[in-house]
Every structure is written in structure tokens, then in C-alpha cells.
Here is the input.
Amino acid sequence: QVQTVASGGGSVQAGGSLRLSCTAPGFTSNRCGVAWGRQAAGKQREWVSNISIDGRTTYADSVKGRFTISKDNVKDTVYLQMNSLKPEDTAMYSCKTSGGNCGFGNSWGQGTQVTVSS
Here is the structure.
């Protein structure tokens, strides 16, 4: 299983932006997709976005039009550009390989905290 590490979180005011990075060594050579998820305190984890090995992207309705997922196959890194952040986006964000040769049901990796203040 590819181990993932998310980074780039922080504290911003509503309307601000952050770019998260997900380091996933080998996801390109293993032909895997990568998913982002988030978990707010006291709530269940919520799927946020996914990018497939061929670059197809999907988003949760709650972030569509504000978040953009992309990847750098050379660096084996997936990015989540988050714009127009809202307080309800506050959560621990993490990523995992998902789909392709990695299959589904993999574990979420180390996360990064995003806090959006009003």
C-alpha cells in the first residue's frame, strides 16, 4: 500500500485560499488514483475529491467550484487548491490512493489541519 502524507494546512479567514499537497510515492508508477477526504471534529469523514490515473477529477457538491485537484506525476504529488474557504471547511484533511491498480479501501494517511475563521 502506498503511504501518503498530507501537508499545507493552516489557519485562514473565510474567503481565503490554501493549497494542500499529498505526497504519495509510487502512485504514478503503480497507476493509482488519489482521493482527498476530510474529517471535522465530532463528525464522520467526508470524501472531498478524487483524481484518477488518467486525470479525471470528481468533487463533492460541497466543494465543487471552489476546490481544484491536480497532480504532478513526476513528483508523485497530488494537490488540492482550496479557494473561497468557508468556516464549514474546517477539518483535518488527508489523502489516500484510490482506484486503479491500488484498488479501494486503502487507509487514509497522515493529515493536515485546515481551520477557517469567520
About this structure: The chain has a mean pLDDT of 95. Strands lie at 5-7, 10-13, 18-23, 32-39, 46-51, 57-59, 67-72, 77-82, 91-100, 112-117.
